[in-house]
Amino acid sequence: MSSLTNKNVLLGVTGGIAAYKSAELIRRLSELGADVRVVMTRAAQEFITPLTMQALSGNPVHTDLLDVAAEAAMGHIQLARWADIIIIAPCTADFIAKLATGEGSDLLSTVCLAAKSDLAIAPAMNQAMWGHQATQANLAQLIDRGVKVWGPASGEQACGDVGLGRMLEPSEIASCAEACFDSGVLAGKKVVLTAGPTREAIDPVRYISNHSSGKMGYALARAAAEAGAQTILISGPTNLPPPADVEFIAVESAEQMNAAVMARIENAQVFIGAAAVADYRPVQCAAAKLKKTASETMSIELTKNPDIIAGVAETNQVACVIGFAAETDNLLEYARAKRVNKKLDMVIANDVSQPGIGFNSDNNNVTVIDANGETEIAGLSKYQLAKQLIQLIAQKI
Ligand code: CTP
Fold it and tell me: What does the alpha-carbon distance between residue 102 and residue 115 come to, in Å, rounded to a whole number?
């Protein structure tokens, strides 16, 4: 049963081209058992009709603050009290500004002012508008006040630009909404994760690293925190913001990552090694920048880094130790060997040679290998996959 069953979801729709996706979002939320009521701004009605939203939600659509008949049926205060959660999708830059200043100039902004429920927004706008200082300052205020910000995603936009600003897909927004009501399968548990690449210094300006984006590890940390776990994320350098409700420790090298993990692993029930840890580091990091020489070749002598996850498994203190095997060939064979050799409870194998999944992408297809066998999970975003993996891990412990 979904955690959205019998929940009252007030869906606010503001005026952006992504409003057409809100129709699909109503269907998703309804399929998950939510009772959906829609409030549309005037601009939203230029993009999609209230009739469509009414037909899909099975409830009258609310559009006016000062409509006597509508207020008599269910006014802004009743709507605010009715909602278990308010989701504004799409949420325009203009509406973000309205929320930030606390304006109550139309039905939706007034409902938001009157509501005590969770408020979530799924921003959608042109990438330049998203990046504008004013929008970012407004967002920072909203985040400060506890508003949940879901997305935006990056990609090609209706205006032809490419960048951040696309509304998340309806299925992703529905997953985020479900997570808000999850009862917390990991409540009372401590989860430590590593994510991202490590950087192994050659000299003060150069390093050896890899293409890991950190997306899978961050998605897992978010899902673990949403499942109620005390979550510690130890991350190499990435471009990602730390997820909410997660203790975040930034490191650079494998040795730093190892020290950070070992200092925090006590009393953890779960360790997830999602970092792409460099296996070797230069024997010496030159004190000054290395200069080019006359020679056509150069070699850097490397020495082995500690195997962090094997070290955690070795302590025998953590109930569930989960590793990743990112491979370009012989995927399952290598992954099975890693589970045995590093004494892991579970290995998540993913093929990083395929375009569209793995290292830098937003999606992932994986095979989960544990003592009970092997299960393939495909076609999910990294966050949806993370949520499934967290459920599996919760069952294990
Ligand atoms: N790992 C780790 N510390 C290391 C190397 C790897 O904790 N020094 C962890 C990774 O976080 C991952 C798992 O071990 O969970 C497998 O990592 P991978 O790089 O695929 O394995 P390696 O042991 O490095 O083997 P190889 O590079 O030969 O594939």
Answer: 12
Looking at the structure, tell me whether residues 149 and 230 fall in a common domain. no
Give residue 369's pLDDT band: very low, low, confident or very high (50, 70, 90): very high
How far apart are the C-alpha atoms of 39 and 24, rounded to whole Å?
A: 15
Q: Which one of the listed residues 91, 159, 176, 180 is annotated catalytic?
A: 159
- Catalytic, 180? Answer no
Mutate to test the pocket of ligand 1, among 211, 307, 328, 350 (most ligand atoms within 8 A of CB): 307
Count of domains forming the chain: 2
Nearest-10 crossing angle of helices 93-101, 107-114: 40
Place of tokens 């692993």: 265
204 and 293 share one domain? yes
Domain shared by 163 and 197, yes or no: no
How many angstroms separate the alpha carbon of residue 193 from the centre of ligand 1?
Answer: 14
Same domain, 150 and 250: no
Residue 385: predicted pLDDT: 87
Mean pLDDT for 290-294 is 94
Alpha-carbon distance of 379 to 178, in angstroms, equals 19
Query: Are residues 385 and 291 part of one domain?
Result: yes
Distance CA 82, CA 30 (A): 16
pLDDT at position 332, please?
93
Judge whether 1 lies within some domain.
no
Transcribe 190-221 into DSSP letters.
Answer: EEEEEESB--EEEETTEEE-----SHHHHHHH
CATH code at position 238: 3.40.50.10300
Q: What is the domain range of residue 275?
A: 190-396
How far, in Å, from the CA of 277 to the mean position of ligand 1?
6
Ligand 1 centroid to Cα of residue 292, in Å, is 32
Do 13 and 70 sit in the same domain of this protein? yes
Of 153, 180, 207, which residue is a domain's last?
Answer: 180
Asked if pLDDT for residue 73 goes beyond 70, the answer is no
List, for residues 121-160, the tens digit of each pLDDT value: 999 999 999 999 999 999 999 988 889 999 898 888 778 8
72 pLDDT more than 70? no
Read off the pLDDT band of 353 (50, 70, 90).
Answer: confident
Residues with CB under 6 A from ligand 1: 194, 254, 273, 275, 277, 279, 305, 307-309, 323-326, 338
